[in-house]
Fold this sequence. Notes:
six-stranded parallel sheet
Amino acid sequence: MIDLHCHILPGLDDGPTDMRHSVEMAAQADRDGIHTICATPHIRHDHDVRIHELPDRIAVLNEAIAQAGGAAHIISGGEVAETIVEHLSDAELRVVSLGGGGRWILLEPKPGPLSDSLDHAVVTLRRRGFHSLIAHPERHLGVDMLERLARLVREGALIQATAATMCEPPASRGMAILARAGLIHVLSSDAHHPRVGREVAIAEGLQVLGRIDPPGQFLPWVRDVAPAAMIAGEEVASPYPPEGIPPPAKDGATAG
């Protein structure tokens, strides 16, 4: 599996403070069956992440993981705030694109409900040759969230949900609604520390998602095809349409 959203680089943002904890996070990934991790530090005004330093930092972390006997491989990425998109050059965006593929940007909505400024960021990125993977929409609840996400998907964006929330009531009930609306395309860990908060793990969330249609019918695409294509910089389109308003739940279709 590939984890497209993980704050594994040490000493940069609100992730691990030292290399030891980063190596522990990589060991969690090994145990969960994750072979590749996109290091996605926050790219926004309140974190002093220097984009030009990221390739060297990733190389150092990969060396430390290998020396510890780990198997997980770290590749480039960044969690780019919608509020900073217009302040980044195309070259900077390519450095923080998922996997360094030069096309897919993990786009973080600003705090609060989704708004027109997220639409503007998606359109801006598209005009500059990039596609958007919207990060953790479950953290940005609003009365029109489903309709907004459906519109963004129709414009070419895809949606990344946090794997742990698929398994934890009461959040899991809302995640099932998102899934039935065709608004979950990949699961990622969004882990920040090996001992606090979410682990670097996706497998259990994928098991839950596999029981919810429509994404459950396309689980190999969600688990393998879409993440691999994104880090390779390829075009990716959802195999199921966004509905916005989900159909009634089938028996046994709720998560949790």
